[in-house]
């Protein structure tokens, strides 16, 4: 047998053959932009990044003031290939890359909106369809006027779904008089404004800014949307992603993360029950399936062992990983032992920090593991490690040795650089 790039160690108990693990680091490259970047999308066919930008000026806005733009960048050199600007108080709000059913071309979809009165009660918007040409320039192939600002858009089984001024629309890409264009196939009134949308199979999960989470089902045969479950809590949901048909991870404006599960109540009516809550302390802008390690996957497909990346308004990048019941039980007790054994700076309580406070009511974090706290185990002294394992200070003894716990922590750390 051959063991390339391996190290062989002969001991009194036998022969050990191992490999040195590659140290992974997250390399950060800063790309200067002319205006402030707000949204980003990637298009594989053209090998470009689509960037929504906003221009902030010190002078009062006029109808000729450039309020924002959309530009495409080469995915290797990050040079700007083309750019379009918006005026007349119109602002781009969202951008995605999409391939419609019955059309093999890949398009950038850009959503916009602007208020039409000084009290910001009325608005209009547009959905613009751009194609990257062979010369790598932006070509506007279609635009759809909307009666309201477009808050959010998402690709959905070859269709486009959009939240427009409190309404959810499903658009099809159809040919009319030999020219492709968007047609609204169905729509449904939402509780308020939806800034975040997720999909899973035929389900559409809405993150509402006033009424938490709403789950809709789309029937392609009848072109109808039906509400199948709702979370009867008042939460300002700013980001959401579906883990499977029944489990949804969400973030609310106050900096909390929570997970809801679709189940049946006593009258067999489908409802969404909260199963996990945790205080992050930051404003999550977006969830995205993917990995920060060297194993790259399709961000639009849910992997078998999913890891969910999130980005925050303050510039942080985090990772949520799914754990088995056995692993969670071990880490949950280890987390409690560490909070009892290791005192933080200023003697601040870890339990209080991660608890969820809403309207003067505080609830303890449930069914979440603090990865930062767990990984700090490797920074402890040997005696402190043993104290954590033994449950010194009011904890409970773990059924693992210090060496076993170190291996568990190292496995978790391999999920990210």
UniProtKB/TrEMBL annotation:
Residues 69-379 form the RSE1/DDB1/CPSF1 C-terminal domain. GO terms for molecular function: nucleic acid binding. The gene is DDB1_2. InterPro entries: RSE1/DDB1/CFT1, RSE1/DDB1/CPSF1_C, WD40/YVTN_repeat-like_dom_sf. It comes from the Eukaryota. One of its GO terms (cellular component) is nucleus. This is DNA damage-binding protein 1. It comes from Choanephora cucurbitarum.
């Amino acid at each position: 047998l051959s063991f390339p790039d391996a190290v062989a160690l002969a001991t009194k108990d036998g022969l050990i053959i191992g490999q040195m693990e590659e140290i992974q680091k997250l390399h950060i490259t800063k790309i200067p932009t002319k205006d402030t970047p707000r949204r980003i999308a990637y298009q594989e066919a053209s090998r470009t990044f689509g960037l929504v930008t906003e221009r902030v000026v010190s002078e009062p806005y006029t109808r000729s003031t450039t309020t924002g733009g959309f530009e495409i960048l080469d995915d290797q050199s990050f040079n700007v290939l083309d750019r379009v600007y918006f005026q007349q108080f119109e602002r781009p709000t969202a951008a995605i890359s999409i391939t419609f059913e019955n059309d093999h071309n890949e398009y950038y979809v850009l959503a916009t909106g602007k208020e039409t009165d000084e009290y910001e009660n009325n608005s209009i918007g547009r959905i613009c369809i751009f194609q990257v040409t062979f010369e790598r320039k932006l070509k506007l192939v279609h635009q759809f006027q909307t009666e309201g600002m477009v808050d959010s858009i998402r690709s959905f089984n070859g269709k486009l779904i959009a939240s427009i001024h409190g309404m959810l629309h499903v658009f099809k890409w159809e040919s009319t008089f030999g020219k492709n264009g968007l047609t609204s196939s169905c729509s449904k009134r939402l509780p308020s404004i939806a800034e975040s949308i997720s999909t899973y199979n035929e389900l559409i999960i809405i993150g509402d800014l006033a009424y938490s989470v709403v789950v809709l089902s789309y029937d392609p045969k009848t072109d109808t949307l039906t509400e199948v479950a709702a979370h009867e809590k008042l939460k300002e949901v700013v980001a959401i992603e579906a883990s499977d048909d029944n489990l949804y991870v969400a973030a609310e404006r106050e900096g909390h993360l929570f997970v809801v599960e679709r189940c049946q109540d006593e009258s067999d009516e489908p409802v969404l029950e909260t199963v996990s809550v945790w205080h992050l302390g930051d404003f999550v802008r977006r969830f995205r399936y993917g990995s920060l390690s060297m194993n790259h996957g399709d961000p639009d497909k849910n992997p078998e062992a999913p890891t969910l990346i999130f980005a925050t308004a303050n510039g942080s990048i985090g990772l949520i990983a799914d754990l088995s019941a056995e692993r969670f039980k071990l880490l949950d007790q280890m987390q409690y032992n560490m909070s009892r054994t290791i005192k933080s700076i200023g003697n601040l309580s870890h339990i209080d920090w991660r608890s969820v406070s809403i309207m003067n009511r505080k609830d303890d974090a449930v069914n979440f593991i603090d990865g930062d706290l767990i990984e700090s185990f490797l920074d402890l002294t040997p005696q402190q490690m043993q104290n954590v394992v033994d449950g010194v200070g009011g904890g409970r003894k773990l059924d693992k040795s210090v060496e076993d716990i170190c291996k568990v922590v190292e496995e978790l750390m391999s999920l990210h650089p």
